[in-house]
Amino acid sequence: PHKKPVYMEELIARMQDEKNGIPIRTVKSFLTKIPSVFSGKVVMLEALHLGTLMAAHGYFFPISDHVLMLKDDGTFYRFQTPYFWPSNCWEPENTDYAVYLCKRTMQNKARLELADYEAESLARLQRAFARKWEFIFMQAEAQAKVDKKRDKIERKILDSQERAFWDVHRPVPGCVNTTEVDIKKSSRMKNPHKTRKSVYGLQNDIRTHSPTHTPAPEAKQPTEEELQEQITFWQLQLDRHRLKMSKVAESLLGYTEQYVEYDPFLTPPDPSNPWITDDTTVWELEASKEPGQQRVKRWAFGIDEVLKDPVGREQFLKFLESEFSSENLRFWLAVQELKKRPIREVPSRVQEIWQEFLAPGAPSAINVDSKSYDKTTQNVKDPGRYAFEDAQEHIYKLMKSDSYSRFIRSSAYQELLQAKKKKSKNLF
Amino acid sequence: MSQDPLEGCRISAGKKSAVSLGKALHPPNLLVVVEGTCGACVAASPVSAPEGSCSYNVAHHHLCVCVRVCMAWQGLQKGETLASLKQESENLRRKLEEERGKLTDVELHQVAEKVETVAALSIKTRRVLKGHGNKVLSMDWCKDKRRLVSSSQDGKVIVWDAFTLNKEHGITLPCTWVMACAYAPSGCAVACGGLDNKCSVVPLSLDRNENVTAKKKSVAMHTNYVSGCSFTNSDMQLLTSSGDGTCALWDVESGQLLQSFHGHTADVLSLDLAPSETGNTFVSGGCDMKANVWDMRSGQNIQSFDNHQSDINCVKYYPSGDAFASASDDATCRFYDLRADREVAVYQKDSIIFGASSVDFSLSGRLLFAGYNDYTINVWDVLKGTRVSVLFGHENRVSRVRVSPDGTALCSASWDNTLRVSRT
């Protein structure tokens, strides 16, 4: 009795833990702030979830049901005996299950009557183990005898615990099977301590051997070559130029701040989130050729924003064409397009791009540095998807510093940015 | 004075120095090759010692020198060479950790203290997609922001209009455990694969009566299960990750292997393409607990992170492409910045003891949604490192979480056979 407050206080301390506990916050109420509160619902949900997990793993179970879950009603539960806890790494085999089901049919008690799915399982097991069934039957008999000798109440408890164990390892069809493993992981036997012992003391020769659990091959020792590669890799990494954390952190904060108004989880979209109102206006506006102000504003964040938005690309191209300087962007777009083609079409497409933009006397001649030009000339002789990579990189940098900034400063762009505002003014 | 990786050997700093090898360690007729890049002149100068001697001259300016002992004859155990190589590798790795640590003048969550806390989120499920007969293992959104494709353990792949709950296409694969699926950028095809060691592309027909399964075309061939797939920014190229420890880039039309990526030492479980208009990189994570960044053009592994303590189940880029997150069986999710070249945040709680299977960012990158094997989805504040919300609702493991292309909704796929679309 004098220990109870200590246990509770331990739990309370954990609940209040700043990092791992329940979130405590100040809630803004009408005209005031309510300091230092937590949501009762959050606590209830967490408690129920924890309880559900415990039930699903069979740490406690409802006494009159095969379904392992925690319900908020008058249902009675019982704790599982530690012998059957998952920490003992049970992987009971079908021979054990057969003995168990067989044993149940021998006991003349209504509460031990087999459910439909159990009767089906028994029938299947009888067929599968036809040759050794006599032995299984004998084991079941022996077990039943031992059980009979026990005290009545003790038997009731043990029976229910045994049944709950099998509800975990041979769940009711349709129930969550917590012993199921992701197939990607099951073939590599991660836990060598899985108990191979039988629940009912059956010997090895009688039991089946599960084919899915082959011991994992010992982790391959790296070869000399692999180690050399590793060493070269580490050396290259050491040569890398790194940024200070303070700079990086500011950059991450800045990016998030810039995009928070575009994040529907943080800022409700205008006019509405289609998933809430079932109104698809937001999507229709996106698809239309008329870009909204918020979308146009985004193009000013960086050249990538213009390039990845089809309407942005179109506007950028239009602007450059009006200045008779669109060849850079057209080249960049053509090379992007080249990389999207099937490999079969690449050689001819490379020639076309070369002729249009880089060959002597090209109609849309672009200016690249001599190094890139020479490299490209070589690449074109054996054309691959990356033939224009160096040239494209050079042109991208040029566009970023020159054409893009001109576009953002242009009256064409500014007009688009103001367009929505004008429209709303006209509503009057 | 610097420490030679070989015990008993010392290199003294200076333009020219003598290194003496302990006679006890190395028999006399050993050829010793010293290689290294000088920090000042980047010259690699191999120097060999005359046979019979056990000393050599080393010209170097910098402390970083690698010594490799070559076997000149059979007497010497191969293990010794391997041991010294291993030691060298370990030393370099530790040095890298040191270098990374030097630039850590502050932690992300400390700088994020000045940012306003995220207002309490109330995320509700708006759609429950029922139709799969077994565990849903993967899903991917279509660029049109409302359609999605999902794949299941029962061998079925379904294309849904999640907005109307309409099932638009059903594809049956001749294998169970379809672990990977992806929507093509054009919206006209999907890719799927899994236990069949293949990844196939299925063109979607507008004609409902047409049997899409018949048009399925094998593109990728691996020697073990396909764990993940993604189209590049084109319907014509497919990137896959596999249990055979490799990733590969394929030409869809011909099935030709364009590039393979070797470096993981165990199953690769996930990959994600960098969201860049100019970049050619992607990140992968696997059972070797490593997250690797790759150059698609050269096939080289350009950056690697090994902070997790168990399988990495999922990797996903931060929207700017400068960082990425990972989910692991060690019950944590982590955040790495590529410019700082290090892990910059760990998302964990004592009460979270089950593995994380999948992660994705909200559009601004402020929130990280993570699906776990305890059936929940935890929503993390990426900058502050705290948990903002928990989503309950699934009745079995969450296998995949994906934010829709315009960030308006979150889709979660689960072993409870359903997919849920949720939003604030």
Radius of gyration of chain A: 35 Å
Tally of strands of chain B? 35
Largest interface: A-B, 81 and 108 residues
Task: Report, as a whole number of angstroms, the end-to-end distance of chain A.
Answer: 75 Å
Strand order of the largest sheet of chain A: 1-2
Major β-sheet strand ordering of chain B: 8-35-34-33
* Major sheet size, sense and barrel closure of chain B: 4 strands, antiparallel
How many extended strands of chain A?
Answer: 4
Low-confidence runs of at least 5 consecutive residues of chain A:
421-428
Mean pLDDT of chain A: 86
Termini Cα gap of chain B: 61 Å
Helices of chain A, by number, come to 20
Percent in strands of chain A: under 5%
InterPro entries (chain B): G-protein_beta_1-5 (IPR016346), WD40/YVTN_repeat-like_dom_sf (IPR015943), WD40_G-protein_beta-like (IPR001632), WD40_PAC1 (IPR020472), WD40_repeat_CS (IPR019775), WD40_repeat_dom_sf (IPR036322), WD40_rpt (IPR001680)
Protein name (chain B): Guanine nucleotide-binding protein subunit beta-5-like
Pfam families (chain B): WD40_Gbeta (PF25391)
Organism (chain B): Nothobranchius furzeri (Turquoise killifish)
Description:
The complex is a heterodimer of chains A (428) and B (424). Chain A has 428 residues and is mostly helical. Chain A is 55% helix and 4% strand. Chain A is built from 20 helices and four strands. Chain A has helices at residues 4-16, 40-56, 94-106, 116-128, 133-149, 152-169, 183-186, 224-238, 245-259, 274-277, 281-287, 293-299, 303-308, 310-322, 327-340, 346-358, 370-381, 389-401, 403-409, 411-425, and strands at residues 25-29, 32-37, 60-62, 77-79. Chain A has a two-stranded antiparallel ribbon. In chain A, helix 3 packs across helix 5, helix 15 packs antiparallel against helix 16 and helix 17 packs antiparallel against helix 18. Chain A is elongated. Chain A starts with a helix and ends with a helix. Chain B is globular and about 65 Å long. Chain B has two helices and 35 strands. In chain B, strand 34 (410-414) and strand 35 form a beta hairpin. A four-stranded antiparallel beta sheet of chain B has the order 8-35-34-33, with no helix packed on it. A four-stranded antiparallel beta sheet of chain B has the order 9-10-11-12, with no helix packed on it. Residues 1-76 of chain B have low confidence and may be disordered. Chain B is mainly beta and 424 residues long. Chain B starts with a strand and ends with a strand. The longest helix of chain B is centred in the N-terminal third of the chain and has 25 residues, at 78-102. The chains are: A mainly alpha (428), B mainly beta (424). The interface between A and B is large, with 81 and 108 residues. Chain B: WD repeats lie at residues 129-161, 219-260, 261-304, 305-346, 358-390, 391-424. Chain B: InterPro entries: G-protein_beta_1-5, WD40/YVTN_repeat-like_dom_sf, WD40_G-protein_beta-like, WD40_PAC1, WD40_repeat_CS, WD40_repeat_dom_sf, WD40_rpt. Chain B: May interact with RGS9; this interaction stabilizes both proteins and increases RGS9 GTPase-activating protein (GAP) activity, hence accelerating the deactivation of D(2) dopamine receptor-mediated signaling. Chain B: It comes from Nothobranchius furzeri. Chain B: Residues 82-109 form a coiled coil. Chain A: InterPro entries: DEP_dom, G-protein_gamma-like_dom, GGL_sf, RGS, RGS6/7/9/11, RGS6/7/9/11_DHEX_sf, RGS_DHEX, RGS_sf.
